[in-house]
Amino acid sequence: MISAPSPNFDDRPAGAPIDHLVLHYTGMQTAQAAIDRLRDPAAKVSAHYVVDEDGTVYALVDEQKRAWHAGVSYWRGVRQLNDRSIGIEIVNPGHEWGYRAFPKVQMLAVRDLCLGILHRHPIPPRNVVGHSDIAPDRKQDPGELFDWQWLAGQGVGFWTDAVGEPGDLMQDLAAIGYDTSLPEAAVITAFQRRFLPERLTSVADEATLKRAAGVL
Fold it and tell me: Is 63 a catalytic residue?
């Protein structure tokens, strides 16, 4: 792990638990550009860690401090996730610059980093989320190519292959954790990126209803 301190952090609110882990992609053309931005005081953004495509991990902000990665966010009744989360930026150009699969060596490094974080903090599997889960109207990352299923099989986060009896989709998504006060298509797409990545329809079709019921 390489130390690359960022000045972009502050104190967490007194008594705030660290009970969420948020995964992002950098969405920039190079790893260095992303790291530079996360360390630029003028940018006012940061993350606790960056994981490069070759598996190198950079430590930017101490876990006990609040990094500025989540922005306006919501998950399972909690808003402003910066207060109580650890943020990991995973190097990938993102949808704007040539979105591509995450290399195995990078995913292994993400796994190991996450397992260490989960050992240090009481973060339940359902609170290991993507940026698009907590801000579906603004964000797409880490996106449909991120292998959540594999990561959960390694002990990080939640996955199920279950389907269930179709119900009220938005009620189910709210119960899973999404902010259903946001535009419906954005929320559905965020769920599909996470649990139905081969089917980004943005609509409440039967497959999505069944999948949401199974996840719930």
Answer: no
Assigned CATH for 160-216: 1.10.101.10
Q: How far apart are CA 52 and CA 109, in angstroms?
A: 9
Order of strands, sheet of 20-25, starting from the edge strand that comes earlier in the sequence: 2-3, 57-59, 49-51, 85-90, 20-25, 128-130
Residue 136, token pair as written in the block: 């579906």
| Given 89, 96, 144, 165, the catalytic residue | 89
2-159 and 160-216 share one fold: no
Look at the domain 2-159 and name its fold: Lysozyme-like (3.40.80)
Task: Output the six-digit token pair for 57.
Answer: 């991990």
- What are the C-alpha distances in Å from 59 to residues 53, 110, 189? 15, 13, 31
Q: Render each residue's pLDDT in the chain as its tens digit; 216 residues.
A: 999 999 999 999 999 999 999 999 999 999 999 999 999 999 999 999 999 999 999 999 999 999 999 999 999 999 999 999 999 999 999 999 999 999 999 999 999 999 999 999 999 999 999 999 999 999 999 999 999 999 999 999 999 999 999 999 999 999 999 999 999 999 999 999 999 999 999 999 999 999 999 999
Report in angstroms the alpha-carbon separations of 175 from 69, 77, 96, 168: 24, 10, 31, 11
Alpha helix segments (H runs only) across the chain:
31-38, 94-97, 104-120, 131-134, 148-153, 169-176, 184-195, 206-215
The residue ranges of every structural domain in the chain are 2-159, 160-216
